[in-house]
Amino acid sequence: MVCVKLGKDIMSYNTYYRRINRIWMTGILIFGTIFFVIQVKFNTSGRHWWNNKSITIILNNLNIPISNKHGTRYTSGFYSHLKKNINHSCAFPPDNLNGFEPLNRSVLSMASLINNFPFMKNGHYRPPKCTPVQKVAIIVPYRDRKDQLKVFLNNVIPKIHRQQLEFGIYLVQQVSGAAFNRGMLSNIGFVEAMSDMNYDCVVIHDVDILPEDDRNLYICTDNPIHMAVKVQQFDYQLPYEGFIGGVTTFSKAQYQEINGFSNLFFGWGGEDDDLYRRILYHDYKLIRPFEDFGICGSVLHKEALKSSDRRKYLSFSAETRRMDGLNNLTYNSLKKGKKPLFNYILVDIGQDND
Ligand SMILES: *[C@@H]1O[C@H](CO)[C@@H](O)[C@H](O)[C@H]1NC(C)=O
Ligand SMILES: *[C@@H]1O[C@H](CO)[C@@H](O)[C@H](O)[C@H]1NC(C)=O
Ligand SMILES: *[C@@H]1O[C@H](CO)[C@@H](O)[C@H](O)[C@H]1NC(C)=O
Ligand SMILES: *[C@@H]1O[C@H](CO)[C@@H](O)[C@H](O)[C@H]1NC(C)=O
What we know:
The chain has 354 residues and is α/β, with parallel strands linked by helices. The chain has two domains: 3-44; 48-348, Alpha-Beta Complex (Spore Coat Polysaccharide Biosynthesis Protein SpsA, Chain A), CATH 3.90.550.10. Helices cover 34% and strands 18% of the residues. The chain contains ten helices and 15 strands. Strands 4, 5, 6, 7, 9, 11, 14 and 15 form an eight-stranded mixed sheet that branches. Strands 8-13-10 form a three-stranded mixed sheet. The radius of gyration is 26 Å and the shape is globular. The chain starts with a strand and ends in a 6-residue tail after the last strand. The chain binds 2-acetamido-2-deoxy-beta-D-glucopyranose (4 copies). One 2-acetamido-2-deoxy-beta-D-glucopyranose (NAG) is lined by residues 51-52, 290.
């Protein structure tokens, strides 16, 4: 027998190779584990798409069919959150969705819209025969775009109706004068909607960016959801990774926790980038639907005045976000009312002082 000397041990070649093998195997195991951990971390710290892989794993574990006949799929967040709230109850996933449908761009009269949606009462709908999984407030910051509003109502109402949610629409209109302040109008919409009803979820919805696929659900989960992923006016792609404009959903608690939007952004743009920082600052991750579910049409308009001050506000948003938002909101509401298809709040939010 041939022997080798390894330190103090005398051993056979067989033992020697076995030991070397063991060292290799251990090494491979350790590096494999590290690699795996990095992969998992990388995947989960990236985008939270509703992807096939995560959905398959989760739905298998929950023993829920992976898709209904329209192929609707959801993330873990979705299900763990919704399961708590389901009390048999409206079908969930909703079972009469149409999938993708191009925007209907006809501008109908308000009278025919009201006529087409007789199930809406006082800007509100509740499924009559089942308990909806969530109560959702649709908040629309608005000014002087009557035709867009009509297109909005004609496209959005039937989609949420098919999703079997309880919902109310809140149009928050700013009187002319000061530059448009989308953030502050959204905060006002939140306060007004919550004082009207105890909603679970708010959707901040531009009047001119409209989902074209009803599998993109107007609903809230354990993280905010950005619904407007592929928007026509941005060539159907995300303009940048942190873009959260268009249509975004928050649970009541999430919106309160991040202190809503900043009130400081008068003029077009900036407030949504600041909002994204608030979301990250509170350790939330943005959830986005499958890209194809997130397709939205744009109802074109002349571009509003860009805010000249948006960089300035963004640069000190870290210090101000604790004091500036929902918790120091003051406004003067001039008029409030309930129309058949929406709640209406006219506000004077003063002038940008700079
Ligand atoms: C998900 O799976 C379906 C069919 O199983 C496939 O058609 C689709 O491309 C997949 N989507 C992604 C994002 O992988
Ligand atoms: C579910 O519905 C029943 C009957 O309407 C009601 O008594 C019960 O409180 C509900 N449960 C939950 C968790 O909402
Ligand atoms: C748009 O909607 C109206 C009202 O529902 C309908 O009468 C019209 O046919 C639709 N147009 C298209 C192109 O689908
Ligand atoms: C809210 O607080 C910010 C930061 O202190 C301030 O600039 C802003 O004017 C306040 N807004 C209102 C409506 O009081």
